[in-house]
Predict the structure.
Amino acid sequence: MDNKQPKVINKSGTTKLTDEAMAAKEAKAEKDFKGRRRDNRRNRRAAEEGKKEFDTVNISINRVSRTVAGGRRMRFQALVAMGDHKNRIGIGLAKGNDVTSAVQKAERRAKKNMITINMNKETICHEVETKVTGAHVLMKPAAPGTGIIAGGVVRSIIGLTGIKNLISKSLGSTNKANIAYAVIEGLRQQVPKKDWNGSKADKAEKAEKPAKKETK
C-alpha cells in the first residue's frame, strides 16, 4: 500500500492531508507571511524616511474658544517649527477643529514660510536683538563646544537648524508664538561676515578702485 496517498475521511470521497503534513504546511505559510510583512514594513519605512525632507516639532498646542450666537466655539491652536537641520527653518501657527487638523495646517504654513539663514560655521554670524510685540529675544554667537544655551522655544527652533553653538536670552513676554517669531526674525537678519561694513573684503575692494581725478 502506498503511504503517500491522502486518506479518505468521509463517504463523499473528499480527502485531507495527514495532521503532520497539514501542520508543516501551515507553519511554512505563516513563516512566509511574516517575512513578507516584515519586508513590506521595512521598505515602507525606508521610503518614508527617504521622502522626508524636513523635521517638525510641535512647540505648543492650545485650546481656544470664541463666543458665537449659539454659545462658545472650541478650537485648537498649534504652533509648529519645521527645518532641515542645515540652513532652512520656518514656523507656522494655525487653528483647527481638532488637534490633527491644526497641526497639519501649521505644518503647511511653516513649509510655505520657510527661510534660508546665514551661518558662521556652526553658530550665527553676529549678535542680534529682536522684538515682536511683547517678546524680546537676544541671541549671541558662541565658541565651538558651548552648545545651545537657550530656553524651550528658542531651543526647539534652533535644534532644527545646523546651529550647534548659541547663547540666547528671552527678556520680555513669555508668549510662545511671539518668541518664535522673534527668533525667526533674528535668524533672518543674519548677515555673513564678508558683507559687513568695514570688513577686510570691503577694504580690499575699496583699495582696488582708483582714485578719481578732480576736474577743474
Remarks:
- Helices lie at 19-51, 99-112, 152-158, 176-188, 200-208.
- The two ends are 129 Å apart (CA to CA).
